[in-house]
Design a protein that fits this description.
This protein has 376 residues and is of the alpha/beta class. The protein has two domains: 246 residues, 3-Layer(aba) Sandwich (Aspartate Aminotransferase, domain 2), CATH 3.40.640.10; 123 residues, Alpha-Beta Complex (Aspartate Aminotransferase, domain 1), CATH 3.90.1150. Helices cover 38% and strands 16% of the residues. Strands 1-7-6-5-4-2-3 form a seven-stranded mixed β-sheet, sandwiched between helices. Strands 8-9-12-11-10 form a five-stranded mixed β-sheet. Bound molecules: pyridoxal-5'-phosphate (PLP). The site of pyridoxal-5'-phosphate has 14 residues, from helix 3.
């Protein structure tokens, strides 16, 4: 089945009792045991498994694909909880190679939570495969890829990273949040794991926090992630799963619209004299354009740009928008704009004059008009 069909019919099952077309929400925290003590209906306790969560996990596994449909997913209460589960599934003393530009929560998590726990991390420019190769150590167990990256939209060649990981005896995990499974399919490029913040494009409406780890196939590593999911308990609620599945149904319709709007906006910004740089992989002069064109089916709805005049000028542009919402996060229907360095904190490597934009589903002429007046 094609991803569009999987998404449009996410969790599709006609309720045998009522004929309901939309799935029910199973709020029950506990499930009845059979007289012989078995759980023949497959559910015991909602932290361990729940019908809505199982439906979401099955849908995410199908959407990401994986060898002969053997992918498996574990859903979490946030993208960060999913990321943490991957790091926790490693062992103290293991080494992780991570990008020098990625979601700041991921790099902060490695530095502040997992370094004291004994996980070693190197932060590398992943657009330079040789520097990744040079960073491999005998204890490297994971190469963490995020492409397009947050917030500089750097593009990493997933197949190349997967190959480096394989020859090092390590796993390659790809944070596919910004592209979504509609635009980028890391398993087809030999990644072993895909991680999502489902808070973003997958749910798509700025109303539910969630995350997932998807494995190309069942594996000892995935079993460890599941154990962490079960024992540490950072699981999404049944309603969160239901909302995420509802969002997924329109993902195939939303992603081309986000991409088309972002492409138009990027071209408009490129021609504006107050803009000193535009970071969008759909622009032919973006350094990762060729790789993005090869490994993505479209360039997505995220872009960032730098404002001539530095931090104050960038803050001033953000202050003047009328239609864009000044807010963090991304992937929803409404366009958001954000001064990224100030939310990432003083240690942030993000340029001070950079604004990140999550391009929504509004009419793009209205978005262009709003940025034009904010930049004027
Ligand atoms: N990965 C990426 C690429 C993100 O942009 C984010 C959040 O912005 C996360 C992970 C973390 O997701 P969550 O906020 O759901 O924990």
């Amino acid at each position: 089945m094609n991803p569009e069909t999987i998404a449009a019919q996410a969790a599709h099952r006609i309720d045998g009792e009522t004929g309901a077309v939309a799935p029910p929400i199973y709020l029950s925290t506990t499930f009845e045991r059979d007289p012989d003590g078995e759980y023949s209906r497959g559910f015991v306790y909602s932290r361990v498994d729940n019908p809505n969560r199982r439906a979401l996990e099955q849908c995410l596994a199908l959407l990401e694909g994986g060898e002969a449909g053997r992918a498996e997913a574990a859903a979490f209460g946030s993208g960060s909880a999913a990321t943490a589960a991957v790091f926790q599934a490693l062992a103290p003393g293991d080494h992780v190679i991570a990008p020098d530009d990625c979601y700041h929560g991921t790099s902060k998590m490695l530095r502040e939570i997992f370094a004291p726990w004994g996980l070693q991390a190197s932060f590398v420019d992943m657009t330079d495969a040789d520097s990744v190769r040079r960073s491999v150590l005998p204890n490297t167990r994971l190469i963490w890829v995020e492409t397009p990256s947050n917030p500089l939209l750097k593009i990493t060649d997933i197949a190349e990273m997967a190959e480096i990981a394989k020859s090092a005896g390590a796993l390659c995990a790809c944070d596919n949040t910004w592209a979504s499974p509609m635009l980028q399919r890391p398993f087809e490029l030999s990644a072993d794991l895909v991680v999502h913040s489902t808070t973003k494009y997958l749910s798509g409406h700025e109303d539910v926090t969630g995350g997932a780890v998807v494995s190309r196939e069942d594996s000892a590593f995935l079993q460890r992630v599941r154990l962490i999911q079960n024992l540490c308990g950072a699981v999404p609620s049944p309603f969160d799963c239901w909302l995420t599945l509802r969002g997924i149904r329109t993902l195939p319709a939303r992603m081309p619209h986000h991409s088309a709007n972002a492409g138009r906006l990027a071209r408009f910004l490129q021609d504006n004299p107050r803009v000193s740089a535009v970071h969008y992989p759909g622009l032919p002069d973006h350094p990762g354009h060729d790789i993005a064109a090869r490994q993505m089916s479209d360039f997505g709805g995220m872009l960032s740009f730098q404002v001539a005049g530095g931090r104050d000028a960038a803050m001033d542009v953000a202050a003047r928008v009328r239609l864009f919402v000044r807010a963090t996060s991304l992937g929803g229907t409404q366009s958001l704009i954000e001064h990224r360095a100030s939310i990432e904190g003083p240690e942030s490597p993000t340029p001070d004059d950079l604004l990140r934009v999550s391009v929504g589903l509004e009419n793009v002429d209205d978005l262009i008009a709003d940025l034009a007046q904010a930049l004027s």
